[in-house]
Amino acid sequence: MTSDSIIQVRGLQKVYRTGDVPVRALRGIDLDVARGEFLAVIGPSGSGKSTLFHILGGLAAPTDGEVIVDGQNIRDLSDARRTELRQHKVGFVFQKYNLLPTLTALDNILIARYLARQNGPLSDDFKRILDLLGITKRLDHKPRALSGGEQQRVAIARALVNRPAIVLADEPTGNLDTENSTIVLELLRAINHDRGQTILMITHNPEAAAFADRVVAIRDGRIAVDNPG
Ligand SMILES: Nc1ncnc2c1ncn2[C@@H]1O[C@H](COP(=O)(O)OP(=O)(O)O)[C@@H](O)[C@H]1O
Ligand SMILES: [Mg+2]
């Protein structure tokens, strides 16, 4: 275990017991992510990728194993402290966007700032990101008036607005055309290079994975391949 790991995972298991039959979604994951790394996670549908990210982001609890995020063992944290970790250190891009339907795109972004108790106007840097993402003119619209791709880019903006140390992006280009995919991937690479933000990205697309420093493949809840890029 190296001390400059921003994420350390040991023996992580997750069993869902919501249905009649327990689902073993993660079956013993060991993973270290270095501070400032850009990691891609690939693997078939149902292999446990989103579950892993939900646990790393403090959105779901492990069944067994250790998860240390920026020096804090999430098992030791109260619900309130885990929420705080998520709001201050992690930016999460949900596979299904999870925008609040009654709020405009702008308010969906601002609520992330509000929850992290960040006040003041949006920085010029962030306004440039909104421009890059092509959503500046769409900010007054509610999600239902936006295309899937626009909603996905709003979700990306929301994940970045607090400049989180860790960005967890679950298929962030899943609903984007080639041009917008490239814009998003170059944006992620830029904030990784220029600001040292650690990025973990789930993707199905080998071209997207090629933007990362390292690719980890998950299969049946286990790490099958771990390749430095
Ligand atoms: N909230 C949940 N309740 C019950 N089973 C779940 C839940 N979330 C995911 N699963 C199951 O866990 C397994 C892994 O799912 P998931 O992490 O979403 O995989 P992936 O993101 O790789 O497609 C799948 O069998 C899925 O059906
Ligand atoms: Mg998934």
What does it look like?
The chain has helices spanning 49-56, 79-89, 105-115, 124-132, 148-160, 178-195, 206-209; strands at residues 5-16, 23-34, 38-42, 64-69, 72-73, 90-93, 166-170, 198-202, 214-219, 222-228. It has 229 residues and is of the alpha/beta class. The chain has a single domain (36-62, 77-228), classed as P-loop containing nucleotide triphosphate hydrolases (Rossmann fold, 3-Layer(aba) Sandwich), CATH 3.40.50.300. Strands 6-7-8-3-9-10 form a six-stranded mixed beta sheet, sandwiched between helices. A four-stranded antiparallel beta sheet has the order 2-1-4-5, with helices on one face. α3 (105-115) packs parallel to α5 (148-160). The mean pLDDT is 94. Bound molecules: adenosine-5'-diphosphate (ADP) and magnesium ion.
- Return the string of H and E elements: EEEHEEHEHHHEHEHEE
CATH topology: Rossmann fold
Please tell me what the overall shape is.
globular
**Termini separation (Å)?**
20 Å
Oligomeric state: single chain
- CATH architecture descriptor: 3-Layer(aba) Sandwich
Number of helices: 7
Structural class: alpha/beta
Tally of distinct domains: 1
Give the C-alpha Rg: 17 Å
- Summarize the main sheet: 6 strands, mixed
Numbering strands along the chain, what is their spatial order in the largest sheet?
Answer: 6-7-8-3-9-10
Strand tally is: 10
Low-confidence stretches: none
Q: Proportion of β residues?
A: 25-35%
Bound molecules: adenosine-5'-diphosphate, magnesium ion
Q: What helical percentage do the residues reach?
A: 25-40%
Top-tier CATH class:
Alpha Beta
